[in-house]
Amino acid sequence: GQSLEQPSEVTAVEGAIVQINCTYQTSGFYGLSWYQQHDGGAPTFLSYNGLDGLEETGRFSSFLSRSDSYGYLLLQELQMKDSASYFCAAPPTDSWGKLQFGAGTQVVVTP
Amino acid sequence: EAQVTQNPRYLITVTGKKLTVTCSQNMNHEYMSWYRQDPGLGLRQIYYSMNVEVTDKGDVPEGYKVSRKEKRNFPLILESPSPNQTSLYFCASRPTESSGANVLTFGAGSRLTVL
Asked: How far apart are CA B113 and CA B89, in angstroms?
C-alpha cells in the first residue's frame, strides 16, 4: 500500500502565497493529482503531475519530485474563495484502478 | 451538461435495513468509483469498476457491494447497514485513456446516517 501525508491546516491572508506539501510512502506511482473541496461540496480536479516538474494553471501550480517522494500545490494571490480543503491523490503502480487520497489540508484565507 | 448524479442526497435509515445509493454518469466514462469521506480521514475508496462487469475492491470494501451492468450506472449497495457506515459518500467517474485518466468527476455526494 501507500500513504500520502499532507498538513491538516494552513492559514494565510488574502493576496498571500500558500504551499501545500504532499509526501508519499511508496516505491512508485503513476502521478500525483490535486483536488479542491469546498465545505459540503464535491471534490473538483485542480491539477495533475505525471512527470517531475512544475505544472501551472492560472493562480495554481503543482510540482512533483519522484526522487524526493514529494509534491506540492502552490496557491498564489490567495482569494477568500480559495478557502477550502485540498487533497493530493495518487494511484499505486500495482493497481491503476485504485486511487488513494491524502487526509486533506484545510486552507483558511483571512481578510 | 456532463455530470455524475447520485441519489439520494440525504438518507437516514436504521441498522439492518438494506439500501442502495444510485450513481449515474452521462460522459460515457469507462471507470467509476465509490468513496466515503469521514472527518480527518479524507476520501477512502470503497469499490471501483474499470468497465462493465468489471469491479474490484478499494481500501474499505467491507459491508458494501456494487454492480456494473451498464456503463452509465454504478450503484452502491449496503445489504445490512450499521452505524459505522454513517458517512458522506461520493461517486466519481473518469475516462480510462491516459490523457484524462486522473481527472475524476465527482457526484454531489450522499450523506447517509445509520441509526
From this structure: 11
Instruction: Give the residue from A8, A6, A5, A3 showing the smallest Cα distance to A107.
Output: A8
Searching chain A, which residue's CA lies closest to the CA of residue B89?
A42
A99 band by pLDDT with thresholds 50, 70 and 90: confident
Residues of chain A found within 8 Å of residue B44, distances taken between Cβ atoms = 101
- Given a cut of 60, whether residue A2 has pLDDT beyond it is no
| Ramachandran quadrant class, A97 (left: phi over 0; alpha: psi -120 to 50; beta: rest) | alpha
Cis peptide, bond prior to residue B81, ω within 30 of zero:
no
Residue labelled with grid coordinates 501507500? A2
**Distance separating alpha carbons of residues A57 and B84, to the nearest angstrom:** 39
For chain A, say whether B61 makes contact (Cβ under 8 Å).
no
Grid coordinates representing A26 are: 511508496
A27 grid coordinates: 516505491
| CA–CA dist A25, A3 (Å, integer) | 5
Q: Is A42 close to B108, i.e. CB distance below 8 A?
A: yes
pLDDT at B41 over 90: no
